[in-house]
Amino acid sequence: MRFSGLANFRLMLTDKVFRAAFLNTIFFTLLGTCVQMLMGLVMALLVLCIDRFRTIIRTVYFIPCVISSVAISQIFAQMLAVNPPGVVPAVGSLFGLAPHALLSDPHWALVLVTLIDAYKFAGIYMVIYYAALQSVDAEVLEAALIDGCNWWQQLIYIRVPLIRAVLEVTLVMLVSGCLKGFDVSYVLTGGGPGSSSELVSTYLYKTIFISGNFGYGSAISIFLAVECLVTLLILRHLFGRGDKA
């Protein structure tokens, strides 16, 4: 055993798989954060606007959050399967579309992994946004309605600004969660085909537990921790500037 110094960190700079995993993680974080925030907010608004069966609908939206990621991934894998054909290829064939193994397509694998992961966790943010929207003072909304504001104007100029603090907190939660994303990618595609859906966390797991390269894996884990810390510090700085403005 010998001390390798910074050799493992230098290796990261020339490792093509790590570079691909890093870029994939950025894409996964950006798309996943946007989709989950949007889905959570839209679902919260739908629940808020519905009077009947509100509890049932809210429960249905939240169910994916309490189902294991492995189960969710397997469900979507069967739905997207070509042989035997799943739901998606079967529906596509009705419109004359040839069956296509989307999870085996390098152009689609990462996008699907990101969207399925977003679907899995969007219910958590639906609950948070629903609670925040309920806390908006009804008198403020009534005054805006009297002044001639329609529903969209109330949403953009009143509801969203009043829950800004909640949006900022959930943004931090989403970014930190996406940067550490692992389970859906690993179960659905294993980082493949090739390294098209490889994330830093899945590459870290393979490096340590499959390849047995603990030194290089430790370097990747340090990079992942620093990456999360730097990103959160940047977000904190941006939120601080917004408060001053």
From TrEMBL:
GO terms for biological process: transmembrane transport. It is a multi-pass membrane protein. GO terms for cellular component: plasma membrane. SUPFAM superfamilies: MetI-like (SSF161098). Pfam families: BPD_transp_1 (PF00528). InterPro entries: ABC_transporter_permease (IPR051393), MetI-like (IPR000515), MetI-like_sf (IPR035906). CDD domains: TM_PBP2. It is found in: Cell membrane. It comes from the Bacteria. Keywords: Cell membrane, Membrane, Transmembrane, Transmembrane helix, Transport. Residues 22-235 form the ABC transmembrane type-1 domain. The keyword Methyltransferase does not apply. The chain crosses the membrane at residues 20-48, 60-80, 110-132, 214-235. PANTHER family: ABC TRANSPORTER PERMEASE PROTEIN (PTHR30193), INNER MEMBRANE ABC TRANSPORTER PERMEASE PROTEIN YCJO (PTHR30193:SF37). This is N-acetyl-D-glucosamine ABC transport system, permease protein 1. It comes from Bifidobacterium asteroides. The lineage of its organism: Bacteria, Bacillati, Actinomycetota, Actinomycetes, Bifidobacteriales.
